[in-house]
Here is the input.
Amino acid sequence: MKTFATDIRVRYQETDNMGVVYYANYLVWFEVARTEFLRSMGLVYRDLEDKGYYLMVASLSCRYRSPVRYDDIVRAETWIEEMKNSSLKFGYKLSVNGKSVATGDSVHVFTNKSGKPVRIPEEIRSLPVDI
Amino acid sequence: MKTFATDIRVRYQETDNMGVVYYANYLVWFEVARTEFLRSMGLVYRDLEDKGYYLMVASLSCRYRSPVRYDDIVRAETWIEEMKNSSLKFGYKLSVNGKSVATGDSVHVFTNKSGKPVRIPEEIRSLPVDI
Amino acid sequence: MKTFATDIRVRYQETDNMGVVYYANYLVWFEVARTEFLRSMGLVYRDLEDKGYYLMVASLSCRYRSPVRYDDIVRAETWIEEMKNSSLKFGYKLSVNGKSVATGDSVHVFTNKSGKPVRIPEEIRSLPVDI
Amino acid sequence: MKTFATDIRVRYQETDNMGVVYYANYLVWFEVARTEFLRSMGLVYRDLEDKGYYLMVASLSCRYRSPVRYDDIVRAETWIEEMKNSSLKFGYKLSVNGKSVATGDSVHVFTNKSGKPVRIPEEIRSLPVDI
Here is the structure.
């Protein structure tokens, strides 16, 4: 299995004046999805940071298809779309009750503590890429 | 002048474990830039909502060029890149001390309270588009 | 059982420059705890709002005992400390790996849509109060 | 002058489903008020961290008097209520158009990078305490 799904209950804090989830919070769910995807592969992102690796975001895109509401359960799916020497591209699909509400992707660069790009560590390199 | 700039002081709340600003918070600054851009044109977004117009986000992209730190002053520039019958595309450029730290754009659809797209109201239609 | 516990994984977004969770985010966990406590009692807060009841916060206190870090699992316990005609007081205890990291309480007033206090609805009135 | 005021425009991101500002965001404004208070006294909190001092929160209380809405300008006043060997107590008053909307206080402990309490540095010690 190359795609991983995690379910996230929408918090009141994530909603806004319009009665739907504020657009920046989709990116927080992407983060939760990445973390749980790595955990499902036996990798703990916190451990990577402890070893001196950081994932700096380079780009982000999101297409918002349908509003999401308080207390909805969002299914967040993620997968690795591309792997280069020092960067990773994640794909995302968010859905509520089987209906797609958003899609997106983000590119992250592996760096050391001082922000210099480094080669992706072996334990990440061996992850499946969904092409 | 078709581009509007607003200065935003980075809050401690906006930083994360990596010692830089969390990636979703750039979208909050985009929101502040849009609001102040409209205000500079004599339009108050709150008034638009009071009149029954809502700006639903349809898509977002952001390129992160350089990290931003606590207490930095972010200059957020925005402009209208495109105007269609019921949608607007905003462009963004964020910089700190004259150095570009991020660029992005977002598309928003004008809707009524129930989420149905409507024609952009006249006061918005007359805004300058930066082509 | 009068106390309800829910487990919350700390998000990267919730951390700050100091490498620990930002202090305002404890209040978000209190919210999650309240929602899940009510759900465990068969009450869905979203349904209460649909019926025209709102829970406006009146006061909040929190004692921070120990910092919480990214990826920790926070056990959030909550209970009703006091119930008056139109207000409820919740107590909270947060812990990580069995160690208390914070305690707090909050008072909320039941109001109608326009903000006027109303008598607590019967389904809430029948909840156990932990004295 | 022992009390410092800073004006903060309410962001859309800070609102919630109820059409008012989410309760945790008052604590973000308290943070902005503390930072600007120190700056008005010639102290930059970022510099304190660079020198190895950290302000860990120990307790927080807030009384919510009236809801705050999107685009309101919140006047945030803060002052030092108490200074002990290694801790500070700040008081807060938030108002909109001259009307008090919230009051609060918070206690912070000065620590070193590893979290051990230290004596408040001299530049802080010389700040006025409002008694």
User: Anything to note?
Assistant: The radius of gyration of chain C is 15 Å. Chain C touches chain D at residues 17-18, 23-25, 27-28, 31, 49, 54, 56-64, 67, 115 (CB under 8 Å). Helices of chain C lie at 25-40, 45-50, 122-125.
